[in-house]
Amino acid sequence: MCSNYRPVTRMDRLLTFFGVERDRDEVPADVFPTGLAPFIRRAGDAPVRVVEHGAFGLLPSFAKEVAFGKHTYNARTETVARLPSFRQAWSRSQRCIVPAEGLFEPRYFGTAERPGRSERWRVGLPGEVPMGIAGIYETWRNPHTGQDMFSFSMLTVNADDHPVYSLLQKPGDEKRMVVILDPEDYDAWLACTPAQASRLFRQWTGPLDLAPAALPPRAPVASAGKAAPPPAPAPPDQGELPF
User: Is residue 241 situated within a structural domain?
Assistant: First the structure.
């Protein structure tokens, strides 16, 4: 799972690592559910990648508020094709790449019976290389304003046996990790059919850096909804929500 990450927002890094041009440069700031961040999609049927701005937490057509995205920031690969919140985006091949400088997860120092204290840890690729995370996106019309906006979700797979993710998240809970794409698979992920896309549902087997990363003081960030209070410890995975 991932409820907190640092997006790639600098124009030079988006161009170098993802081949997309953005019309503005921003200092990366940590994003939580309903926060706004860049994502990359295909430009219609053309084999061209474009960068968009959307809310972290997919908003299906039946969502009434942006806050719905607090339940849909991750989509389980096992159920993305059938849960109402995600199945339309999935069946329409509305797949995207979420560019991330790093992911943040809780690491507990205890047991399933006594989880003990937790610390915030950063997961990233070696050498400060950003990662491209497999996602899905949707266009949502705000029923209060009539305005359209993008939103997106990251896909996750089981990671109980992963050498890094087995150390993270609450003891006794299922371990989940986002689907980190190999750069060679970026275009295939964006262009293939849903059946073909499922072949990319796998754990990342390459090296990952893991280090403590205390939460910095909360700074004002752009949000698609109301201003969020200071973040609490990362919530548990959404599991089989009936959305």
Answer: no
Domains: count for the chain: 1
- HSE-up of residue 71 (Cα within 13 Å, Cβ side): 16
Residue 233 forms part of a structural domain: no
Q: Based on the number of CB atoms within 10 Å of its own CB, is 21 exposed (0-12), middle (13-18) or buried (19 or more)?
A: exposed
pLDDT in tens, 30-72: 999 999 999 999 987 778 999 999 999 999 999 999 999 999 9
Look up the domain containing 182 and give its range: 5-212
